[in-house]
TrEMBL record:
Protein name, UniProt field: ApaG domain-containing protein
Lineage: Bacteria, Pseudomonadati, Pseudomonadota, Betaproteobacteria, Burkholderiales
Taxonomy, superkingdom: Bacteria
Matching InterPro entries: ApaG_domain (IPR007474), RmlC-like_jellyroll (IPR014710), RmlC_Cupin_sf (IPR011051)
Domain ApaG positions: 1-95
Organism: Duganella phyllosphaerae
Length: 401
């Protein structure tokens, strides 16, 4: 497992647009195209063409990967490889395949999973002295056709894959020249409008676990987790090991999120979630107490259980996910089970404004299968807080005797 390292420059977020019938690059000579095929006849082909008919083709089969360019009747092979990591993995492993065209930087990139630099598997580069015909027509590439499969799950992003948006989010007041130069955080204004709204609702200083009316709330939760027969301890014992955390909902499902949009999640030391996605929803996660490890996966598949990267977020940190970035993850409290402190996060979800399907489940991996989790609630927040306060009060009275 590799830890996410900050690139050397800052990058803004751009978002892919779904399309079912081929595609047009919004900007000539640049962009990224991704498809997640169910079935491929023999070879999956990305064919980028100019108005004049010149073409760049990336072909992926189970035995061979290639990049070719064509001008008139002249066909030139640029790359040929039998490296297994580049090849088609269907039907054993279903995942997105993407190709990035970057005529400004004179390169083609290819990867699997989300359209991220960390998931790039191959780069082909040329320069101004190259004899490849691609050098002359790359800036005119505009039309995209996908061959060898049904054109479902096709997405187009207007920029090439260059730098990855950092998963940590900061407010505009926290940006510095060092942040810009080091690309060490995503600024909230660079997020999608949906994520910006979610961030505005939970990132403020008033969203804390301990409050003036119950300053020992965190201490009382830890007591309830580790004390035999206490409220949280009893509830956790009834849960499956893969779901060894508590979901405390703050409001009601208003029809624009998978389940309730705001959820306080309590993570006992050493416990975590299964690998799961989020129904193509956007989310913002703020750590309220302790620390949480977030690990990301390039596909939701029982055949792919190794994360491509991870981070540990601490109290006060905020992270995000969208349909295009960090959508598949696993959360775990990395503190040791023996003597470790719990973690509390507030998760807030919302579908993108252009999502008209509203898939209501989080899919997850369990026992080699993909299962469906309908977001539920262990308690409503105000009721949970009341019960914990009462339990803590009795514990304090007993201790004082």
């Amino acid at each position: 497992m590799t830890s996410l390292q900050a690139p050397k420059q800052r990058v803004s977020l751009h978002y892919a647009v779904a399309t079912d019938n081929g595609a047009v690059l919004p900007i000539k000579g640049q962009g990224t195209v991704s498809i997640k095929p169910d079935v491929v006849d023999d070879t999956l082909r990305f064919v980028f063409t100019t108005e004049a008919g010149s073409a760049l083709e990336v072909a992926i089969s189970r035995t061979r990967f290639s990049i070719d360019c064509r001008t008139g009747s002249d066909l030139t092979n640029l790359v040929t490889s039998k490296d297994e990591k580049l090849l088609l993995t269907l039907p054993e492993l279903r995942q997105p395949y993407w190709v990035s065209i970057d005529s400004n930087n004179m390169r083609v990139r290819y990867g699997k999973g989300e359209m991220l630099r960390h998931l790039m598997l191959l780069e082909f580069q040329w320069d101004t002295e190259s004899t490849y015909a691609l050098k002359d027509f790359s800036k005119d590439l505009r039309h995209v056709d996908i061959k060898g499969t049904v054109k479902d799950h096709l997405r187009v992003m207007q920029i090439p894959v260059t730098l990855d948006p950092p998963p940590t989010v900061i407010p505009t007041s926290a940006i510095t020249m060092e942040v810009i130069a080091g690309n060490s955080a995503s600024v909230v204004n660079d997020l999608s409008p949906v994520c910006q709204r979610l961030y505005a609702n939970v990132a403020g200083p008033g969203i804390t676990l301990n409050s003036p009316d119950f300053p020992e709330f965190a201490q009382a939760i830890q007591y309830s987790i580790v004390t035999e027969g206490a409220l949280c301890n009893s509830k956790l014992k009834k849960k499956e090991e893969e779901f060894g955390y508590l979901r405390i909902t703050l409001d009601t499902n208003m029809g624009d999120s998978p389940g309730q949009p705001y959820v306080l999640e309590i993570w006992p030391a050493g416990n975590g979630s299964p690998i799961h996605d989020h129904g193509k929803a956007c989310a913002v996660i703020k750590v309220l107490h302790g620390q949480i490890q977030v690990s990301w996966f390039s596909s939701l598949s029982p055949k792919l259980l190794t994360p491509w990267g991870s981070m540990i977020a601490h109290a006060g940190d905020v992270t995000f996910l969208t349909p295009d970035y960090y959508q598949i993850h696993q959360l775990k409290n990395p503190s040791p089970k023996a003597g470790g402190d719990f973690c509390a996060t507030i998760q807030c979800y919302r579908y993108p404004d252009d999502d008209e399907a509203h898939y209501e489940y989080f899919d997850y991996i369990e026992n080699g299968q993909i299962e469906h989790f309908s977001p539920d609630s262990d308690w409503e927040y105000l009721d949970f807080k009341k019960k914990i306060r009462e339990e803590w009060g009795k514990a304090m009275e007993t201790a004082a005797k």
